[in-house]
Amino acid sequence: MLDNSILYDLTKYREEFTLGHGHAACLLVHGLGCGPIQMRELAEDLREWGFTARGILLPGHCGDTDGLALSTLHDWSEKVKTEYLQLKREYKEVVVIGFSLGALLTLQLALHHPIEKVILMGTPLFLIREYLPINALIGVCRIFLKKVKTWKKRCYIESEAHTGYLHQPINSHYPLQTLHEIKQIIKTVKPGLKEIKSSALVIHSKKDMIAAPASAQYLAKHLGSANKRLVWLERSHHLIMYDDEKDVVFEAIKKFLNAPATD
Asked: Using the 8-state DSSP alphabet, how is residue 32 labeled?
């Protein structure tokens, strides 16, 4: 029976966590506007599979738009790098798993650090649809607007921390500056994909209306990884960890983590 309650307490969304005491660690990087709770259900499975799972909070997230507007690409990148290096001091193998914005930050990290394995879910190398001039539109809109309206989508989570519905924990508008920061990540990451040698699992839905499916095709073609796998989802939307094919996502991750880093 579904729990129809909605979690409105943003302190729960912000809570960083470390689950398990495995032989290897997984660093979990959430998407725009949410927090560690977005990765919590996956983290609990990772613990059961024998990994340590570390869920982090990106600066400026899980609050109001003013807090998000004050955070920058540098802040996000530094947080991910600091957490990764801390795990590397404790574990021989650290896997980085990113969703959406978190996937872009994972790629950025992999440009500068020899990560053994990365998992990239819903990576927005192309926003919405590849044929729309999103970058140009953001640049023009920044002259006239400070915020852009968002659509809040609820998703159902079943975890030890919470069972019920999550909602996008942010006001109804994103700062245009934040979208500009994302554009800057994409601008720096795309030319360097061939330099990334990490074994890579790319998971993407053909129905994703935020991160264009062309993003996954581009990754599969241009990543410099000798071992890279692309898993397509047919029925899911952007929040693939909570959609109809969640079991497919989790099983693909489990199989990838248990396989050798190179074929």
From this structure: T
* C-alpha–C-alpha distance, residues 52 and 20, integer Å: 5
| Euclidean distance between the first and the last CA atom of the chain, given in angstroms as a whole number | 43
Tell me which DSSP letter residue 248 carries: H
Domains and CATH numbers, the chain: 10-258 (3.40.50.1820)
74: number of Cβ within 10 Å = 11
pLDDT in tens, the chain (263 residues): 566 788 877 788 889 999 999 999 999 999 987 889 999 999 999 999 999 999 999 998 776 555 565 577 888 999 999 999 999 999 999 999 999 999 999 999 999 999 999 999 999 999 764 444 444 444 444 443 344 444 456 778 888 878 887 776 554 445 666 777 888 899 999 999 999 999 999 999 999 988 999 999 999 999 999 999 999 999 999 989 988 999 999 999 999 999 876 54
